[in-house]
Amino acid sequence: MRDWSERHRLAGRRVGFVPTMGALHEGHLALVDEARRHSDVVVVSVFVNPLQFDVRADFDRYPRPIDDDLRACADAGVDAVYAPTAAAMYPPGFQTHVEPGPLAERLEGEHRPGHFRGVTTVVAKLFAAVRPHVAVFGQKDAQQLAVVRRMALDLDLGIEIVGMPTVREPDGLALSSRNRRLGPEQRAAAVVVSRALRSIEESLRQGTTDATVLVRRAAEVIDAEPLARLEHVEIVDPDTFEPVHTVDRPSLALAAVWFGEVRLIDNLLLSTG
């Protein structure tokens, strides 16, 4: 992978990169299109990273349709697919990790211990192999995007990190590889996540700025769906991910909701203008 990238770099071409865990969908392909706008050649990685799963069963159940992913990449004009094995990424004796800072301690970091340590470690290794000029991440994983941006800045990686708006189904559900694990009734119920976030936006538009009230209203929307189990809804500063008490500046509403054994996350940027 590194040799391939170096040849393109020496030829003066910009290398774009989209890291994924596979089970590709239209959201991933939108990231590929965005990477193409920033570069001359595009690499997609497909690697289900064991380090970022805090529950082994969740890792085992994660979909791995590699043949479908390769076809999707070919159809999208991807120039190279990097699909290392876990043994290649973490050979015997592997012991070095990238430790994220306070930005990774709340929300996803709190509910999924070790998750962001796994993310930063694998992304650093993928960056070292692919050697991109630019890497594109989806904003659905907003905290992950912020943590990766912080890592790239703090470690002077010289890689431009681009965030891409969340791609949604017509009914508002954020596209996710986990969606394919939902049963038909769960899939129909899952739209409640984006509906709850939109309820925050609507209440804010009507003049409610108290974050506690806004969060309570969103939680009520989710609790009204029998198949949904709320993990958390919060409103935070989009840069620090610290809680916001009064929404009088741009803020980020985030939600994590369980449908059976499937955990879905979503977020919505709140504007006060």
TrEMBL record:
One GO MF term attached to the UniProt entry: ATP binding
Main location: cytoplasm
GO biological process: pantothenate biosynthetic process
Subcellular location: Cytoplasm
EC class of the enzyme, as a word: ligase
EC number of the protein: 6.3.2.1
Stated name of the protein: pantoate--beta-alanine ligase (AMP-forming)
Keyword list, A-Z: ATP-binding, Cytoplasm, Ligase, Nucleotide-binding, Pantothenate biosynthesis
Biological function: Catalyzes the condensation of pantoate with beta-alanine in an ATP-dependent reaction via a pantoyl-adenylate intermediate.
GO cellular component, one term: cytosol
Family indicated by similarity: Belongs to the pantothenate synthetase family.
A Pfam family hit: Pantoate_ligase
Species annotation: freshwater metagenome
CDD domains: PanC (cd00560)
Pathway terms, separated by semicolons: Cofactor biosynthesis; (R)-pantothenate biosynthesis; (R)-pantothenate from (R)-pantoate and beta-alanine: step 1/1
Catalytic activity: (R)-pantoate + beta-alanine + ATP = (R)-pantothenate + AMP + diphosphate + H(+)
